[in-house]
Amino acid sequence: MSDGWAGQRERILEAMIEVAARYGYGGATVARVIKRAGVSRATFYEDFEDRGDCFLAAVRVATSRVAEGLRRAKSEDVSPRQLIANALAAVDREPAAARVVLIESLAGPAATRAEHERLLSEVQRVIEDRLREEVGPLRLEISARALLGGIGGILATRLHRGETGRMVDLLDDMEAWVLSYTTTARRDRGHVDWVALVGLVEPRTTPQPNPLDVRLPRGRSALPPAMVAAEHRQRIFAAVARLARERGYAAMTVADIVATAGIGRDAFYELFRGKQDAFLAAQSFALENSLALAASRYFSDGAWPDRVWSAALPMLGYIAAVPDLTILNFVESYAVGAPAIRRSFESRMAYTLFLEEGYRQRPEAGALPRLCSEAIAGALLELMRWQTVEGRTERMQELVPQVVYVAIAPFIGPAAALRRVSEKAGRPIPRLAAAGG
Predict the structure, then answer these.
(1) Which range of residues forms the domain containing residue 233?
(2) pLDDT digits over 276-319, tens only?
(3) 381: Cβ–Cβ under 8 A, 6 or more apart, which residues?
(4) Is residue 11 part of a domain?
């Protein structure tokens, strides 16, 4: 390989990272990349088979850059604060690469999504190693995946909004959230076994009905036009969600949607401008229904932690009942581009509604930074996204104990939260063997 060839390829990859960070994966066209790199189209195709091949290589380069500090941290004795500082510094140092890794890789083909998951798994292992280490008499009692979701969610949201360059300013608030899960270590008791905790609560509630199962009778309908339009919307939502799971957003067409929905093309365009418009409406439909179910149980009598549990059960039950919509929201939304990604990040803040009372639970809770709500929402959504990616969407209610614990622990204290979850689950919280035991 000549130095010139290597330099040429490096310029193209650097251009792809910069263009994807600015315009998103969908806007990272070959034309924009070669203009940025200062090479010809023929030269591009000498180095890469197509745009997807180039983007995959760029994601791998970006991942290597972002992960470099964390890889070094494996052999270092670093505190939670230092781990957070490393992540913030990596984003400040390489904002374009960080955006490609945390956001745009999820918008690309399956291979780039796999790179994203590979990095998350690597970082998760680093965090798990640190969580097993007790700092004096203290330990952090939170799963690595939840911790990763909280920190990563905050970083991704700010990258999406273009708020880069001063990520380090978030250090104190992010550390306060992480340390809100600190408990007193006991030599006779190991860490919570979060893997076992997933199966602690079998879904015992009545399964939520799938709101997309309704179908119009065949032939000309005598129903009022407004009702027919509502039924057509549901058919379209069901079709978009099914196609998102089977083919992915990029491959589906309006022709596919109307054929799957069993409606005419004119009926589709009476309701939506195109497939992106229909996708965004389906995304909103899923969020609104899950929040409505949660709110119906949350705004009732009882102590705040108990109402959080009561809200989590039907919300996760609904998510389990609509696996296609869940995949649409958690997996395929990034492929739609900026509008769907923005809606995904905005939806995180909707979940913080259920956390407001937490700040009034005790004096220590009132002193927590409001960033805690955002971090908790990111942690919970990552737990649900991971359950979806792992193919366990229909068993989403298994997450109830961990979801509730992550939501209430900073406000009532982790020890009290574990006791509360154990009581609601009706059995002891599973734990790993104690160190040296």
Answers:
(1) 201-422
(2) 999 999 999 998 888 898 998 999 889 999 999 999 999 999 99
(3) 149, 153, 330, 348, 351
(4) yes
* pLDDT at position 228 over 60: yes
Let me know: does 271 contact 291? Beta carbons within 8 Å: no
Q: Which phi and psi (to 5°) does residue 105 adopt?
A: -60, -30
Distance CA 280, CA 287 (A): 11
Question: In Å, how far from its chain's centre is CA 91?
Answer: 18
Angle between helix axes 304-321 and 275-298 (nearest 10 degrees) is 150
On whether residue 190 sits in a domain, the answer given is no
Higher pLDDT, 215 or 1: 215
φ and ψ at 385, to 5 degrees? -65, -45
Write down the pLDDT at residue 427. Answer: 81
Rounded average pLDDT over 33-44: 95
Q: Are 397 and 383 in contact (CB under 8 A)?
A: no
What pTM, to 2 d.p., does this model score? Answer: 0.89
User: Which residue, 184, 210, 242, sits at the end of a domain?
Assistant: 184
- Is 216 in contact with 178 (CB distance < 8 Å)? no
Let me know whether 260 and 394 are in one domain.
yes
Same domain, 222 and 358: yes
- Find the radius of gyration of the CA atoms of the chain: 23
Structure tokens at 135: 């700092």
User: How many structural domains are present in the chain?
Assistant: 2
**Do 55 and 167 fall within a single domain?**
yes
161 vs 431: CA distance, rounded Å:
40
Residues 165 and 215 grouped into a single domain = no
Residues 382 and 249 grouped into a single domain:
yes
Is a pLDDT exceeding 90 seen at residue 127?
A: no
Q: How many residues does the chain have?
A: 437
**Which tens digits make up the pLDDT trace of 68-83?**
755 555 545 567 888 8
